[in-house]
Amino acid sequence: KITNLSETSNLKDVQIQAYIIDMSNLSEETKKNPSISRDKALNEYLVSAESGIKRKGGAYKFKDKEKESFSEGVEWVGFRDRYYCALIRPSVSALGYFVDPIQSDLLKITYSPQEVNIGPEESENYSSVLYFGPENLDLLKGYDLGFEKVRRYYRFGLFDAIAKAIYQIMHLLHKVIPNWGVSILLISVVIYFSMYPLTMKSMTSMKKMQSLQPKLAKLREKHKNNPQKLNKEMMGIYKENGVNPLGGCLPMVFQMPVFIGLYQVLWRDVSFKGASFLWIKDLSQPDRLFLFPSSLPFIGNEFNLLPIVMIVVMFFQMKLSSKNMVATDPAQIAQQKMMGSIMPVFMGVIFYRFASGLTLYFTMFYMFSTFTQWKITKKS
């Protein structure tokens, strides 16, 4: 929904075509003296958001930001939510834009045009192109208005670049097999094999560290009053056995940008909205296998199968990882058992109301991790 706020402007032409509205306003000078036209009322619009721009029932409060100056003006302005965006581009670069929340579901967007001299009994045409629709990269590129730049996952360049690369790969996979659920499975396979050397190295290093725990425990007891001696002998054991104390962590650090980028793609890609896979009717929503007659604590009235599957897979993975763990302290053994039970349930609760597309990927991720853990356990 868009409303022109000017009562004096002449709405000359409106053309609507597939999310695009092309509007022209005519500003006329009826006086015999020249004037300068820069009437903000000609360029003010109300933008309505279907789900509302709000937090906790009230209007969304924009954060204060220092004013920025642009020597060449600003070409377009817009805002976006999870799946959709509203973009406005005038025919000429504007000096600035103003976005003000009116109420929970309305924004007022104003742009300040360049000053235009209007001669006696002349007129000036102000035209704007407005886009209201999905944040679909191919669609936005097709308009050739620069609107595709609205697609930004992160402010940090590395995460944003990785997310965009994953987006492109996933859409290429979808062209091969046109089902978004299958695309998620395929991207999980691609990421697994690309990260396999790092994952294997991390798990192998952790396994070696576990095997050294009895020796390290004896050293801690022997040199508990001499930290320098303890540290020196521990480093000697690490070197003797070819173990890097950070070997289990560093490979995971390198993988984190990929997981962070992937999360945003699976969460925000409008392609998943309404896409079905197996029993899942909408990959942008929880899988909702069936509904309970009444609401239950923590889970509501929906039975979501995928998070339950993820809990089971995580449980087996943690069982495998702790199967050959060497612990001499009874408290440490009890802590390991507790983590093996609590962590899967904790993750299941977090993912219970997540989009099923996101849960589907992480379920596959834990399946692959379990397989890798099994290979290492079998080898050892």
From TrEMBL:
Its main location: membrane. The chain crosses the membrane at residues 180-199, 242-266, 298-316, 345-368. Residues 180-377 form the Membrane insertase YidC/Oxa/ALB C-terminal domain. GO terms for biological process: protein insertion into membrane; protein transport. It is a multi-pass membrane protein. Coiled coil: none annotated. Keywords: Cell membrane, Chaperone, Membrane, Protein transport, Transmembrane, Transmembrane helix, Transport. InterPro entries: Membr_insert_YidC_N (IPR028053), YidC/ALB3/OXA1/COX18 (IPR001708), YidC/Oxa/ALB_C (IPR028055), YidC_ALB_C (IPR047196), YidC_periplasmic_sf (IPR038221). The keyword Transmembrane applies. GO terms for molecular function: membrane insertase activity. Residues 58-167 form the Membrane insertase YidC N-terminal domain. It is found in: Cell membrane. GO terms for cellular component: plasma membrane. Belongs to the OXA1/ALB3/YidC family. Type 1 subfamily. This is Membrane protein insertase YidC. It comes from hydrothermal vent metagenome. The lineage of its organism: unclassified sequences, metagenomes, ecological metagenomes.
